[in-house]
């Protein structure tokens, strides 16, 4: 069975704010990476970070699904690994439950482990961003 990153988060923010943080390029840059994202199915975009010795800092992506404000999905292609990121949002009494599935890993590789740890760190940054809104 192929490994998948599956994480659940709870934010004390309305679903509209969480959706905005997932789909607004400027806000996305504050908790993920610089990007040229647009919430339009078929839009090709990049996430860009500072390159390192083992990574060029570029994630090539294409928007696959936009179902405002409940579901967003895009490809995540970097370092020769092609995966898919899917966010699912549920509103609950003014708060938002956010589920992440990052699928398509061939094995529990450096890419998989980096994604698992990276998303947890980025979710902490998302929580800080949402508290400021």
From TrEMBL:
Residues 13-130 form the Activator of Hsp90 ATPase homologue 1/2-like C-terminal domain. Belongs to the AHA1 family. This is Uncharacterized protein YndB with AHSA1/START domain. InterPro entries: ASHA1/2-like_C, START-like_dom_sf. It comes from the Bacteria. It comes from Paenibacillus favisporus. Pfam families: AHSA1 (PF08327).
């Amino acid at each position: 069975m192929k490994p998948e990153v599956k994480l659940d988060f709870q934010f004390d923010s309305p679903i509209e704010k969480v959706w905005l943080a997932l789909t607004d390029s400027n806000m996305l840059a504050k908790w993920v990476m610089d990007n040229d994202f647009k919430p339009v199915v078929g839009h090709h975009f990049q996430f860009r970070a500072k390159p390192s010795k083992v990574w060029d800092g570029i994630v090539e992506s294409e928007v696959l699904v936009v179902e405002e404000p409940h579901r967003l999905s895009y490809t995540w292609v970097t370092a020769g690994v092609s995966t898919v990121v899917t966010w699912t949002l549920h509103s609950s009494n003014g708060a938002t439950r956010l589920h992440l599935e990052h699928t398509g890993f061939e094995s529990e590789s450096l890419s998989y482990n980096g994604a698992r740890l990276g998303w947890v760190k980025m979710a902490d940054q998302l929580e800080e961003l949402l508290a400021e809104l």
